[in-house]
Amino acid sequence: MPAQIIDGKAIAAAIRGEIKAEVEAMKAASGQVPGLATVLVGERKDSQTYVRMKKKACAEVGLNSFSYDLPEDVSQEELLKLVQDLNANSDVHGILVQLPLPDHLDTETILSAISLEKDVDGFHPVNIGRLSMKQREPLFVPCTPKGCIELLDRTGIEIEGKQAVVLGRSNIVGLPVAMLLLHRHATLTICHSRTRDLPQVVRQADILIAAVGRAEMVRGDWIKPGAAIIDVGINAVDDPTNERGYRLVGDVAFDEAKEIAGAITPVPGGVGPMTIAMLLRNTTDGAKRTLAGA
Ligand code: NDP
After folding, report:
1. What letter does residue 234 receive in the DSSP assignment?
2. Which of 7, 54, 251, 285 is catalytic?
3. How remote is the C-alpha of 154 from its chain's centroid?
4. Where in the chain is the domain with CATH 3.40.50.10860?
């Protein structure tokens, strides 16, 4: 039987609807609205697109957004000053510094300067540290990993006691999603570029999270029958039949895997829409915490 297709677009739309209702209720009760500050350095087209999408999503659910576009050659001191001003601004509940930053800026120093209470991307070293420790709660969890777990939860896929395999160990996706699975009591294997006999490791997975950035690397015969697959990868492959000349595919060969898996996310339309929904979630939760005086 073909796999259940996990519809990230529909799940993200439902979450955005929930957030919109919460924001309206917050506004009615306190007159306050959650606010997200986006900081964009330079003119990378992909970063501009991501920031534009985030601001649009904020407007759709009633969040305020404040944008700061800085020139490519902005100094570390100027950027740090902006972050400190935003930390002190009570209309701002979340600060998002769009990555990657130009090479002359020290990403770790900038991310560490964001107030823990406004670290809606969840990349502050203290938030990542708490995520990696037993019985510690980060204030915010990074958005894409959080979205992966939300997709499993809202599809009714149990995590506890399952064999989970994560492909990739990046700070942004692989590592934090692995930590989240561990917190939820999965038995965990993390794979990377030096893992030996990857197909054999993947065949053990009840839950597979693929975050590698290699087009359709995971083949259908790597999949355990009935497995749940969350495909984070976004890869452009040439496609002359497409008017753009390319199409987007995941890290998993979808057409092969869907015949064997129990549930699978498509690319696009799986994890992608969840990342922004989780950013809105984190910003709203941050505002609620501030209002509650926590
Ligand atoms: P990185 O390049 O930072 O990390 C890739 C990881 O995959 C590394 O850990 C690397 O291993 C591992 N890897 C690379 N090649 C292989 C291989 N042949 N076999 C096994 N492991 C391998 O990527 P990101 O984590 O930032 O992103 C991963 C994918 O997810 C990309 O396609 C990206 O576009 C997508 N993405 C999607 C998002 C969304 O919203 N849907 C958000 C963020 C990312 P090693 O550590 O040894 O180098």
Report:
1. -
2. 54
3. 16
4. 32-115
pLDDT at residue 294 in the model: 59
Q: Report the CATH fold assignment for 32-115.
A: Rossmann fold (3.40.50)
Catalytic annotation present for 206: no
Tens of pLDDT along 104-153?
A: 999 999 999 999 999 999 999 999 999 999 889 999 999 999 999 999 99
The DSSP call for residue 140 is -
Question: According to CATH, where is 3.40.50.720 located in the chain?
Answer: 143-272
Residue-wise pLDDT tens digits, 241-272: 999 999 999 999 999 999 999 999 999 999 99
**By 3-state DSSP, what share of the chain in percent is helix, strand and coil, each rounded to 5?**
40, 15, 40
Is the C-beta atom of 53 inside 6 A of ligand 1? no
Residue closest via CA to ligand 1's atom 6 equals: 168
Take residue 254 and report the two structure tokens written for it. Answer: 């979808």
CATH numeric code, 143-272: 3.40.50.720
pLDDT for the residue 159: 98
